[in-house]
Amino acid sequence: MDALARLLDGPRARGAFLLRMVMEPPWSVRVEDHAPLSLLCMTAGEAWIMPDAGDPVMLRPGDVAIARGPGSYTTADEITREPTALIGPGGTCHTLQGEPLAESMHLGVRSWGNDPAGSATMLVGTYQMKGEISGQLLDSLPELLHLPADVWNCPLMPVLDDEISRDEPGQSVVLDRILDLVLIAVVRAWFSRPDAAAPAWYLAMGDPVVGRALRLLQDDPAHAWTVASLAAKCGVSRAGLARRFNELVGEPPMAYLTGWRLALAADLLRDTDATVEAVARKVGYSGSFALSAAFKRVRGISPQEHRGGVILPEPQQQSP
After folding, report:
1. Which one, of 265, 260, 272, lies nearest residue 302 by Cα?
2. Dmax over Cα atoms in the chain, in whole Å?
């Protein structure tokens, strides 16, 4: 499994918000849903995407964009168009004065807009909760990522376009999985560009020594790793691994391992009913006390508070 797939494999979409937006000018929609990530795919016509921070971009048929939250943005037929609709958390929709718009702009199953025959059509897929393992990935993306149709080609786009308006048993799960695959394809294409500024962890996966070390840590986080044992597995000296790992990844091996273990633990706490003790042993801690101490030290809250939905402060780098 490569670096992107590994980071995206755990925190998959679960009940993502998906719709087909169909609009006829004039139109402008303000999005303040605070979602961690939204995928915007233009299938017909044109639309401007204007993040609160950063330059606006024009989407044309076949183009795709990723809007990284929790920042807000506006999409419209013209840059100067004032918004007439506001999208809030969970896909709620109303005017800027608070009047509901969900029913008046409903165009069918997962379809919404001001005209069913509108000239502009955009597919929108929104991840509504931030998966902990994807934190490294989200941090590496700009607030607004844009890939023109001529630099990316994804055969899944017609599939998403076809499936998004279906109303069949299990359809939400089908759409979640398609959205995940499209996201992986977009991010892979983004990092593969000649001028891409890929994050350190992504570039390091291609290094024969550090890449092997990363895969060993990711494949078996519960192992009692030390820099010496990791270096032996990689066939290099302890000092050599420590120096090269820090140069390429930006942190020491054991600090990276701590972040990976706690990210895995955070995901298991949210998405399973496993006890804190069971989670601790699964990710490499001796028991619930050790995991709780590390969780509190690094994230500022206890595993139980995290499981209950307390908002996490920014993680700090610590040793395992």
Report:
1. 265
2. 67
